[in-house]
Amino acid sequence: MTKETTVVIEAKNIVTKFGERTIHDGVSLTVKKNEIFGILGESGAGKSVLMKEMIMLLEPNAGEMMVLGHRLNGIGYKEAQELRREWGVLFQFGALYSSMTIAENIEVQLKEYTDISKEMRDMLVRSKIALVGLDAHVGALYPSELSGGMIKRAALARALAMEPKLLFLDEPTSGLDPVGARNFDKLIVDLRDMLGITVVMITHDLDSIFSIVDRMAVLADKHVVAEGTLENVLQSQHPFVEEFFKNEYTKEKYGDKVMINV
Predict the structure, then answer these.
(1) What is the DSSP string of 17-61?
(2) Alpha carbons 165 and 185: distance in angstroms, whole number
(3) 223-253: per-residue pLDDT in tens?
(4) 124-181: per-residue pLDDT in tens?
(5) Are 48 and 226 in contact, with CB atoms under 8 Å apart?
(6) Quick check: helix, strand or coil at residue 12?
(7) Contact, 203 vs 171, CB < 8 A?
(8) Share of the chain above pLDDT 90, in %
(9) C-alpha 133 chain-centroid distance
(10) How far apart are CA 253 and CA 226, in angstroms?
(11) Which of 87, 131, 147, 221 has the greatest count of CB atoms below 10 A from its CB?
């Protein structure tokens, strides 16, 4: 597909502190329209924190965060509520409401943010369930009755309920077997191409990184130490990048893709 160059997320010199501990010290990156953008990094680098700042669950201590043309710093309540309708979020473990059926989980945002009829909500719920590759009967089940892979897809259906422009995924393939993970990767690409959405995903999954991520940012030492395509990132000589991408296991499994700039 032809990639557009419109910037939909821009982080400028983000500083994040928890007490005396500094998580980000001047983090900057850009996410472009319709791409699958990966956020990688060492443990404790603040990947999830950065994503939470993008979706207004946290506010940085300094710097500027722009999402879909809106400056999040000091954003008003009404503007924030309208902006939240423009994205969907898949949290790492699904975060489905255990007391609700899958259909009820997907319906939550439709009830909160729209005034469409119950009949229309039910139709949209059924369409989202089908969109993520689940059988219609799954809507009547509870999260406890689903496998890990089905929970991921159900949570993804909920994230897509409002037909968002942005989709945020936190470790989407964690806990899945290799076949399930690759099927989920394919689903993400298919949805991006079909719906024209932009995807931001936190991931450690090398298969995802090598197969579906268009560009990425690598967080380490409180900064973005590499950003761009896989080829761009592989040029970095930062120790974390070297360890993550250029170890013997990775070279053996991915061969020439890793050896490009080693």
Answers:
(1) EETTEEEEEEEEEEEETT-EEEEEE-TTS-HHHHHHHHTTSS--S
(2) 19
(3) 999 999 999 999 999 999 988 887 645 666 6
(4) 999 999 999 999 999 999 999 998 889 999 999 999 999 999 999 999 888 888 898 9
(5) no
(6) strand
(7) yes
(8) 71
(9) 19
(10) 22
(11) 87
Token code pair at residue 200: 């931001």
Contact 257, 250 (CB under 8 A): no
Q: What angle do CA 92, 93, 99 make, to 5 degrees?
A: 140
Q: Hey, how many other C-beta atoms are within 10 angstroms of the C-beta on 176?
A: 18
Looking at the chain, how many residues does it have?
Answer: 262
Asked if residues 129 and 138 have their Cβ atoms less than 8 Å apart, the reply is: yes
φ, ψ for residue 163 (rounded to 5)? 50, 60
CA atoms within 13 A on the CB side of 113: 19
Residue matched to tokens 């939470």 = 52
How many other CB atoms are there within 10 angstroms of residue 179's CB atom?
9
Which two structure tokens, joined as six digits, stand for 168? 């945020």
**Could you give the CA distance from residue 134 to residue 143 in angstroms, rounded to a whole number?**
13
Residues in Cβ contact with 258 at an 8 Å cutoff, skipping those fewer than 6 apart: 234, 245, 246, 250, 251
Residue 28 — φ and ψ, nearest 5°?
A: -135, 140
Token readout for 209 is 């990184």
Mean pLDDT of 105-128: 90
Based on DSSP, count helices (H) and strands (E) in the chain, helices before strands: 11, 10
Using an 8 Å Cβ cutoff, are 197 and 162 in contact? no
Is residue 205 a contact partner of residue 220, using CB atoms and an 8 Å limit?
no
| Residue 247 DSSP code | S
CA neighbor of 31 nearest in space, from 221, 219, 218, 217: 217
